[in-house]
Design goal:
Layout lengths: L10 E4 L5 H10 L3 E5 L3 H10 L4 E3 L2 H5 L5 E4 L6 H10 L3 E5 L6 H14 L3 E4 L6 H11 L6 E9 L10 H17 L4 E9 L9 E8 L4 E7 L6 E8 L3 E5 L4 E9 L5 E9 L6 H15 L7 H18 L2
Parallel strand pairs: 1-2, 1-4, 2-3, 4-5, 5-6, 7-10
Antiparallel strand pairs: 7-11, 8-9, 9-10, 11-12, 12-13, 13-14
């Protein structure tokens, strides 16, 4: 371990892999990175070279025993439950990457324990901090579009194929979190799912999921990593208007269109919305730091993580019978 004396930094990032590096960069840029825990020697050396003024730890236990009060977990998903529970038990605040856990009962245990211990538990549902999604959430909350009826998302591209998880667990946590957010976090009623395992038996490359909620609202989520085009979009159907967020072009369009109770079509055109561009990961990291100071509940708190994992798990059960 490299010992660094610092009183200003606030977090230790656990895991310096592909996504962990991004969290490390952002927390460092915010002046809040005390150290990094990474078991792989080459990764640990690279971090120490790039950030010589922070502490480095060879394992999670060293980070757990430190005086730093918050840990950021960027480790493989199967480790999330055990590491997050250990951190909460050590009276640490915790940021855990998505998916929060692989089982709903584990996610619920973490959320309940964090509440009992009075700790901050935040899940890395990055798209909730995307300015365009935040704008849509606020706009829908204003009531100008009328009641939200349906949300449809697409996350399709020719991407990295996993061998340990299907595209649903890899891509869909982002979109499930957005669906719940834009619908106002309704309670789940029913899940139906369809998938195709084209490349590897039992590991779906394309998944389509239909969701119905106790509120009467609905959603559809399409995801694939074996697709010729890059298509990432969120469509909101409301009583008076429709919204379309094109994540590739980074545009939000309001369509002044709807069908009334008499099934008559109304179309008053559309307008492009100007949304300020900013890095959602930086916003997400800053939000965690703000919650550490204010002790306010994060937008993507542990219970938000529970709701997302529940849908992920229920769809997986439907896919595999």
């Amino acid at each position: 371990m490299t010992v660094i004396d610092s009183t200003n930094n606030q977090v230790i990032v656990v895991g310096a892999g592909n996504w962990g590096k991004n969290l490390i960069r952002n927390f460092y840029g915010l002046g809040a990175l005390f150290g990094v825990a990474e078991a792989h020697p080459a990764l640990r050396t690279a971090i120490a070279t790039t950030y010589p003024d922070i502490a480095t730890y060879a394992d999670f236990k060293e980070a757990l025993e430190s005086d730093v009060s918050a840990l950021v977990l960027a480790t493989p998903a199967p480790t999330h439950y055990e590491l997050a529970m250990a951190a909460l038990a050590a009276k640490k605040d915790v940021f855990v990457e998505k998916p929060m856990t692989l089982r709903t009962n584990e996610a619920r245990s973490l959320a309940e324990y964090a509440d009992q211990q009075g700790r901050i538990l935040m899940v890395g549902h990055l798209l909730l901090y995307q300015p365009a999604i935040a704008w849509m959430r606020d706009y829908l909350a204003s009531g100008k579009a009328g009641r939200v009826l349906h949300v449809a998302t697409q996350r399709l591209k020719l991407g990295k194929v996993r061998t340990e998880e299907n595209v649903w667990w890899s891509f869909a946590p982002h979109d499930v979190s957005v669906v719940l957010d834009l619908l106002g976090n309704p309670k789940l009623q029913q899940v139906q799912a369809h998938g195709n395992a084209i490349l590897q038996p039992g590991i779906e490359d394309y998944v389509q999921v239909d969701l119905r909620f106790q509120s009467g609202q609905s959603a559809q989520i399409d995801c694939s990593w074996y697709w010729p085009l890059t298509q990432r979009s969120t469509v909101v159907i409301a009583q008076e208007q429709m919204l379309v967020y094109d994540e590739v072009l980074q545009t939000v369009t309001i369509h002044h269109k709807h069908i009334d109770q008499d099934l008559k079509h109304h179309d008053q055109g559309s307008e492009l919305v100007e949304v300020a561009a900013s890095e959602p990961l930086r916003i997400e990291c800053q939000h965690f730091l703000d919650c550490l100071k204010t002790r306010e509940k994060p937008r993507s708190d542990g219970w938000n993580g529970v709701a997302v994992v529940e849908i992920l798990e229920e769809a997986q059960k439907f896919l595999h019978g």
